[in-house]
């Protein structure tokens, strides 16, 4: 039962990783570079939620506000930086994204300071299901993540702009000669990727403490999940994030809090040695 | 009346020109075969016309409009359709999605195309990447026909087909002018392609070496010797 409890806790942690990984994998699948600013966009989401929460007392309102802000931040970063670097090397775009992340982190530090801040959530009694204790807050967060993920998949598979995103990811030249306007598609992609990262940021902020470095710390597990799931595969990112979250939590009794991240990386390494394209990946683009 | 007029077209992928000053005309309702040896610049010419060549100069007019300053997306919007030689479908999208993503797509137009290509209609939910070479070719044609183009550019449309599917492909191309579509085919199977064409041109080192009526070209001894191979060799 103890391990089942850890697994449940790990699922919530895994959803945060999944959201971050999906944001990374969406951008990689279409713009073809690892966006190192993703973690800092999450931080912007966490601080945005933190601003609204005391005024409304609503996690949903905080989440919606954070998603709007981070979608706007991601779109602005595209318009001001990444669009201007279109056609440059992956390394150039990666370095630019590190720079964008640094700027966002600095702004957060200037505005909010570097002291850890928390969402002052009301105390609640956990639900008892079998022998498992499930925190109502975790359920709310899981619901927020599930809605966000469902929304992302719905956009990708059920809307014209989502299909166009997948087409551009699949075959950029063919997309051009099919009359697909890449400017519109890229703008929509950055809005979606930013919104997903923002939702992840609010979840991370609620579960831990909010400070300007929180997103940067999240970047490695998020990259690991994106690669583990198969870079460019949103479904892979979701699955890998959940697996990494559960493995990290369940390994805590054996390796302690400090090394639990290392264990999940070791598992990722073994899987990638056996299947270099990741769990669901073909290294072709967003599918 | 000329639907496509090319004058002094030069260009390539890097600093070296592959096209060295091509002049070419395609009349409305016509099928034109562009043949030539490997490396003559046939596929490069098709890419230059649709706007996918990184570097090009000269003039290309489509339906009387200078399209050189336009992007590939804008050129397609004017009424061009292009079927590349390879990677000519969105492999990770379903057949239906391949048709839905094209600019100007509508349910009615997709239904019309499913009537023309009933095999695709039966398999509309299948992933395009799982189709055979012939099925992919049908989907590539259907995708290019979605916006009702006035001009179709086909780059080696029979290259990936089994011999028994080649005749089907040429039969389909032959029907296109009756749908109001002019056709420019870049083709290695020059004899078969010329047999369904009104006119042909043969490229050599990025220049038009021979041009004329398709039947005349097929009967031309010099063309046969230098560019078209022995009769039957290309079949």
Brief description of this entry?
Chain A has helices at 2-31, 38-56, 59-82, 90-112, 136-158, 160-170, 172-176, 182-207, 214-229, 234-274; strands spanning 127-129, 132-134. Chain A is an all-alpha fold and 287 residues long. In chain A, a hairpin with a 2-residue loop joins strand 1 (127-129) and strand 2.
Write the layout of secondary structure elements.
The complex is a heterodimer of chains A (287) and B (235).
Chain A: H1 2-31, H2 38-56, H3 59-82, H4 90-112, E1 127-129, E2 132-134, H5 136-158, H6 160-170, H7 172-176, H8 182-207, H9 214-229, H10 234-274
Antiparallel strand pairs in A: 1-2
Chain B: E1 2-12, E2 19-27, E3 31-36, H1 42-50, E4 55-62, E5 65-66, H2 72-77, E6 80-83, H3 95-100, H4 107-116, H5 118-122, H6 133-145, E7 151-155, H7 163-175, E8 182-186, H8 190-195, E9 199-204, E10 207-213, H9 214-219, H10 221-228
Parallel strand pairs in B: 3-8, 3-9, 6-7, 7-8
Antiparallel strand pairs in B: 1-2, 1-4, 4-5, 9-10
How would you characterize the overall build of this protein?
Chain B: It comes from Nitratireductor indicus C115. Chain B: It holds the Pfam family ABC_tran. Chain B: This is ABC transporter-like protein. Chain B: One of its GO terms (molecular function) is branched-chain amino acid transmembrane transporter activity. Chain B: InterPro entries: AAA+_ATPase, ABC_transporter-like_ATP-bd, BCAA_Transport_ATP-bd_LivF, P-loop_NTPase. The complex is a heterodimer of chains A (287) and B (235). Chain A has 287 residues and is mainly α. Chain A has one domain (2-117, 132-274): Orthogonal Bundle (ABC transporter involved in vitamin B12 uptake, BtuC). Chain A contains ten helices and two strands, in the order H-H-H-H-E-E-H-H-H-H-H-H. A two-stranded antiparallel ribbon of chain A has the order 1-2. In chain A, strand 1 (127-129) and strand 2 (132-134) form a beta hairpin. In chain A, helix 1 (2-31) packs across helix 10 and helix 2 (38-56) runs antiparallel to helix 3. The longest helix of chain B has 13 residues, at 133-145. Chain B is α/β, with parallel strands linked by helices and 235 residues long. Chain B has a single domain, classed as 3-Layer(aba) Sandwich (Rossmann fold), CATH 3.40.50.300. Chain B has helices at residues 42-50, 72-77, 95-100, 107-116, 118-122, 133-145, 163-175, 190-195, 214-219, 221-228, and strands at residues 2-12, 19-27, 31-36, 55-62, 65-66, 80-83, 151-155, 182-186, 199-204, 207-213. The model of chain B is unreliable at 230-235 (pLDDT under 50). Chains A and B meet through helix 6 and helix 7 of A and helix 2 of B.
